[in-house]
Write a structure and sequence with these properties.
Helices cover about 30% and strands about 20% of the residues. The protein is built from four helices and seven strands, in the order E-E-H-E-H-E-E-E-H-E-H. A five-stranded mixed sheet has the order 3-4-5-6-7, sandwiched between helices. The protein is globular, with a radius of gyration of 18 Å.
């Protein structure tokens, strides 16, 4: 008889060994992101820029950082039911993509986002904020607000790529950056 895991919401048949293995695999990936553990290699309460390996002149980020970002991009896709994951587990192939990991005071990755350089036909070329995702238990705690000025310094007057959630729209307006909503 099918059963739904109360933690990860994965539906499986406990009597089926293959289903149990699949559930354990999914459950481990889910809890790794939703219940983050401290990573000694990261600074507390910081932004960590992640670069892909598309440009031979730019040193790409370590593979484990790309995988961290990828796990958060998967959670973003799952929550908002998009078709594609916004980051590759091996890092983006082009150098026009940047990822950001956001840590809390305990060095846990609590959020992630992706930026991409765009050439527009109707506006000057520039960066876009393509996606932002925070672990649900860490939302509305001021992480994005605390780091917003630093993001603006790093990426200038970037556009916020559509579709834009109501929460992101309200955030941009509150920051005085409604003009970034493209």
């Amino acid at each position: 008889m099918p059963r739904k895991c109360p933690v990860c919401k994965f539906t499986f048949c406990p009597e089926d060994p293959d289903d149990r293995v699949e559930h354990r695999r999914y459950h481990r990936k889910y809890t790794h992101v939703m219940y983050p553990k401290p990573l000694k290699s990261l600074l507390p309460d910081s932004l960590v820029e992640v670069r892909g390996g598309g440009n031979p002149d730019v040193r790409p980020s370590p593979q484990w950082l790309n995988k961290q970002l990828y796990k958060h991009a998967v959670a973003f896709r799952r929550e908002f039911r998009y078709d594609l994951v916004q980051w590759s587990p091996f890092g983006e192939e082009d150098d026009e993509a940047r990822g950001i990991l956001i840590t809390d005071g305990n060095r846990c990755v609590v959020g992630a986002m992706g930026f991409r350089w765009r050439d527009w036909s109707d506006a000057p070329a520039g960066w876009t904020l393509d996606w932002v995702w925070f672990v649900p238990s860490f939302r509305k705690q001021g992480y994005l607000t605390r780091h917003w000025k630093k993001l603006r310094q790093m990426y200038g007057d970037f556009y916020i790529q559509r579709p834009v959630s109501d929460a992101m729209r309200q955030f941009a307006i509150k920051q005085g950056d409604a003009a970034l909503l493209r």
